[in-house]
Design goal:
This protein is α/β, with parallel strands linked by helices. It has helices spanning 3-18, 25-37, 39-46, 65-78, 102-112, 145-158, 176-191, 203-212, and strands at residues 55-59, 94-99, 117-120, 131-137, 159-170, 215-221, 230-237. It has a single domain (3-82, 90-237), classed as Rossmann fold (3-Layer(aba) Sandwich). Helix content is 43%, strand content 21%. The protein has a seven-stranded mixed β-sheet, sandwiched between helices. Helix 6 (145-158) links the parallel strand 4 and strand 5. 44% of the residues are buried.
Length: 239
């Protein structure tokens, strides 16, 4: 990153993180750490992957750090704290977030207020309204493969022609890095009180599954600075 990009990232993290302060120390520190060190948020903004005026659906949203990052990014842009190399960040028309964890949703409601609708629900059967972008980041490997395919099909139905699915997955064929990713996910699941049953796929299998429901797919490595095997699939709905 260039110096202006680093400065912009720090400004976004500070603004987005502070929104979680009323929710408590744990949500606050999680948001700051996640947004600062996970490359996917910076990539989404720097590459302009969410267009202006987007109706966003975030499946498995956790405590809503993606919409919090996007809202903070827009604020930084409007204050002139923005690198010339990055496109203007989106003004979101609407946000719907869904996650199983009640505590995470409670923190999201505190941080996002009236700027998003966040609901407790299972991504396997949550309603997906008509939208322009669906984000599913590090979520689908927690449900069995047939459920993964059904979620992808429902996304294809909901996303408007020309819209996007942003799907980050672990490439199960990536050797040691894939093993580290699985161990990390299993540890997180145990800490949250669940049993770590994961349903991973190799990158080729993920791409085939997304293409099968009508998307064109581009894959970008998305684990820079980490030991993980994460890949972001940018899938565009046929027009």
């Amino acid at each position: 990153m260039t110096a202006p990009e680093r400065a912009a990232l720090e400004a976004i993290v500070a603004a987005a993180g502070s929104a979680y302060a009323p929710a408590g120390r744990t949500p606050l520190h999680f948001a700051r750490g996640k947004l600062r060190h996970d490359p996917v948020f910076r990539a989404i903004v720097a590459r302009g992957l969410i267009p202006d005026g987007t109706r966003l659906v975030d499946l498995g949203c956790g405590q809503g750090v993606l919409p919090a990052f996007l809202v903070a990014a827009r604020g930084c842009y409007e204050r002139g704290e923005w690198p010339a190399a990055w496109p203007p960040p989106a003004r979101l028309a609407s946000v719907l977030g869904v996650d199983l964890r009640r505590r995470a949703i409670a923190a999201a409601r505190v941080a996002l207020g009236g700027r998003a609708t966040v609901e407790v629900g299972d991504v396997r059967d949550a309603e997906i309204p008509p939208c322009d972008v669906v984000a599913i980041l590090d979520v689908l490997h927690y449900v069995p493969v047939p459920d993964q395919d059904r979620v992808l099909a429902r996304c294809a139905t909901a996303i408007t022609p020309g819209g996007r699915l942003l799907l980050r997955v672990c490439d199960a064929d990536a050797g040691v890095r894939a093993a580290i990713t699985r161990l990390s996910d299993q540890a997180i699941t145990l800490l949250r009180g669940g049993w770590p049953r994961l349903h991973t796929r190799g990158l080729k299998s993920w791409i085939t599954a997304v293409e099968r429901v009508g998307f064109g797919v581009e894959a970008a490595p998305m684990s820079a600075g980490t030991p993980f095997a994460n890949v972001l699939l940018v899938a565009r709905r046929s027009e």
